Amino acid sequence: MTKINDTCRSSKFFTLFYKNLTNLRYLQPKKPKFMKYLIVGLGNIGQEYLLTRHNIGFLIADHLAAQANESFSLERLAYRASIKHKGRSLEIIKPTTYMNLSGKAVQHWLSVLKIPVENMLVLVDDLALPFAKIRVREKGSAAGHNGLRDIEATLQSQNYARLRFGIGDNFPKGKQADYVLSNFNKDEQAELPLKIEQAAKIVESFCTLGIAQTMNFFNK
């Protein structure tokens, strides 16, 4: 009789144990539903634009791929590289449509890769910020930037995240176009690597922690 009771008690113990274990699984943090992200570096293709202020988005995108030992391949409407970071897939594109038609490439790759717009981060230059000042925003207007303006018009929405990299506004009146398409000067080029590295860390934070925590941490 004792052996039978011990067996019954043992059976009840394991039944309760596995029931609690199952319940515990539901309390574990769930992985994000979408683990894929689209990182869009804005710029203009061509060697003549390589180190121009308007191409900072391309430069950050290049750094992200290089530090992961990946390279870009020419695909439809963009150069594309795929990297991994902490279980996330980062699809990085550099549109070949030139700045003023960036929205066409963005819409195409969001659709092809089936990435929700809330998982997209656009890397863009900003005249309103001092050189190398970086700000992250969850949404907002194009603020006169032709690349953002075209993305907004194509997606019919301002609700997408952007990393704004300051390029300053040290130009005479009426010379804005010349300024953004001119090369960073020597002093700026010397400072760029460290600031581009900081921008890359912000991209990684966006993909792992989300836009709210990234803004709280980096917008200081």
What does this structure look like?
There is one protein chain. The chain is an alpha/beta fold. It has one domain (36-218): Peptidyl-tRNA hydrolase (Rossmann fold). It is 43% helix and 19% strand. The protein is built from 7 helices and 7 strands. It has a 7-stranded mixed β-sheet, with helices on both faces. A hairpin with a 2-residue loop joins strand 3 and strand 4. The longest helix has 24 residues, at 2-25. The chain starts with a helix and ends with a helix. Mean pLDDT is 89; it is low at 21-30.
Topology:
Elements: H1 2-25, E1 36-41, H2 56-67, E2 73-75, E3 78-85, E4 88-95, H3 102-113, E5 120-126, E6 134-137, H4 146-155, E7 161-166, H5 176-180, H6 186-209, H7 211-218
Parallel strand pairs: 1-4, 1-5, 5-7
Antiparallel strand pairs: 2-3, 3-4, 6-7
Helix pairs in contact: 2-6, 3-4, 6-7
